[in-house]
Inverse folding.
């Protein structure tokens, strides 16, 4: 299906994991994909090559979203590539840190909010003139925003902030005819959830879920691609749970 043919899309944190799967899915749907990465250029090159090899269009674009003006730098580079319009923005880049309240440091807390909250906020701000009628913004939330899962208090707070931003962004961007939603995965088999490679970790994840298998990045990418497309044209301000029925 070429639901996104002729459209441009930016995916942050697209060099691996869920971001990679999203970039590939958007490419298959016909979008020209900007594959954002921070440091792993070789991995970004691989994603671009896979999209182009499948007949799509893509290029890599670098920016460090941990630093204060990282989102501003990324937005400037996006404008230089695609001009005055961006059809799809997927703010996927994120970091996680498991630590108890007692163990959480100021540095770790600030890093989490810098990448998971500040970066998407200012990326939307800086790209606002490019988000026009029909544009779709998709942020990545998490099961941790609504349920207690492990020692993830600071991380969970960042994803709770994302859910709040979705509603406020949706109201503001709605006047432009643009939509804003979030996807909230549960446990997904990525480097960030490497614990599922152990028998105990797998059992823990499966016990959270109604569906008894471990989610793959493509499970999340399909939901994001749907929200990015015109098939979701009447959905905005919502957080879609894509977690196999976790913590029901």
């Amino acid at each position: 299906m070429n639901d996104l043919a002729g459209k441009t899309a930016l995916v942050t944190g697209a060099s691996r994991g869920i971001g990679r799967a999203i970039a590939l899915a958007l490419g298959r749907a016909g979008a020209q994909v900007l594959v954002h990465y921070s440091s792993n250029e070789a991995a970004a090159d691989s994603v671009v090559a896979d999209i182009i090899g499948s007949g799509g269009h893509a290029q890599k674009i670098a920016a460090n979203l941990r630093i204060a003006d990282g989102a501003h730098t990324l937005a400037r580079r996006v404008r230089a590539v695609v001009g005055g319009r961006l059809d799809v923005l997927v703010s996927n880049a994120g970091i996680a840190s498991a630590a108890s309240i007692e163990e959480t440091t100021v540095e770790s807390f600030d890093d989490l909010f810098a990448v998971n909250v500040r970066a998407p906020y200012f990326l939307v701000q800086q790209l606002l003139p490019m988000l026009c009628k029909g544009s779709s913004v998709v942020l990545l939330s998490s099961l941790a925003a609504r349920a207690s899962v492990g020692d993830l208090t600071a991380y969970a707070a960042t994803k709770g902030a994302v859910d709040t931003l979705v509603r406020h962004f949706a109201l503001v961007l709605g006047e432009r005819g643009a939509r804003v939603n979030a996807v909230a995965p549960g446990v997904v088999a990525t480097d960030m959830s490497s614990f599922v490679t152990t028998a105990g970790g797998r059992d823990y994840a499966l016990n959270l879920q109604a569906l008894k298998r471990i989610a793959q990045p493509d499970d999340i990418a399909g939901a994001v691609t749907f929200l990015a497309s015109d098939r979701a044209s009447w959905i905005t301000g919502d957080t879609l749970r894509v977690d196999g029925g976790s913590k029901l």
